[in-house]
């Protein structure tokens, strides 16, 4: 199962979109605190996230707590950052890899990026553009990881009939 890890996400709409991507793809969502929003059952219902029950969501107090609970993540992680030395097409994703994304205003912590320098990847874009929206970045890398692994567990065809 693919693992999407959001480190200190700030914008609830982004998290909602990412959760929907996780619901559609069967990916697990990991949230590293502090969060810029409430994920209590009451808040989720109020936001109308009718797909939230389809997402396996786990949250952690910080990165140390995350790695204490998931030590295997260090063996197969990828860090999405605009500062990466290479683009995502050079990554070989496994179907159980861990994709890390930083908060909207600052990205992933520098010390974390430097500790995993060889696992940092970026989405190519124009120099004038600061970055892509977080939920778009997650969707692109999630589907690339799934594509490389032949979309495990996902429907292979649509319902459109031929004439």
Provide the fold topology.
Elements: E1 3-7, H1 12-25, E2 28-32, H2 41-46, E3 57-60, H3 63-69, E4 77-80, E5 86-87, E6 98-101, H4 110-115, E7 120-122, H5 134-148
Parallel strand pairs: 1-2, 1-6, 2-3, 4-6, 4-7, 5-7
Helix pairs in contact: 1-5
Number of strands: 7
Percent helix, as a range, is: 25-40%
Helix and strand composition category: alpha/beta
Give the integer mean of the pLDDT values. Answer: 91
Question: The biggest beta sheet, please?
Answer: 7 strands, parallel
Overall radius of gyration? 16 Å
How many helix segments?
A: 5
Poorly predicted tracts of residues: none
Biggest β-sheet: strands ordered side by side in the sheet: 3-2-1-6-4-7-5
Distance between the termini: 37 Å
Q: What percentage of amino acids are in beta strands?
A: 15-25%
Which descriptor suits the 3D outline? globular
Give the ordered list of helices and strands.
EHEHEHEEEHEH
């Amino acid at each position: 199962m693919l693992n999407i890890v959001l480190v200190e996400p700030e914008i609830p709409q982004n998290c909602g979109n990412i959760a929907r991507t996780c619901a559609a793809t069967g990916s697990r969502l990991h949230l590293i605190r502090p969060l810029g929003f409430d994920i209590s059952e009451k808040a989720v219902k109020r936001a109308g996230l009718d797909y939230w029950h389809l997402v396996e969501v786990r949250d952690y107090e910080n990165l140390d707590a995350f790695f204490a609970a998931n030590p295997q993540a260090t063996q197969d992680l990828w860090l999405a950052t605009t500062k990466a030395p290479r683009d995502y097409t050079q990554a070989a994703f496994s179907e159980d890899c861990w994709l890390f994304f930083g908060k909207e205003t600052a990205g992933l912590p520098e010390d974390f990026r430097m500790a995993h320098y060889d696992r940092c990847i970026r989405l190519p874009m124009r120099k004038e553009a600061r970055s892509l929206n977080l939920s778009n970045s997650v969707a692109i890398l999630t589907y690339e990881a799934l594509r490389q692994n032949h979309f495990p567990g996902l429907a292979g065809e649509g319902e459109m009939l031929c004439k």
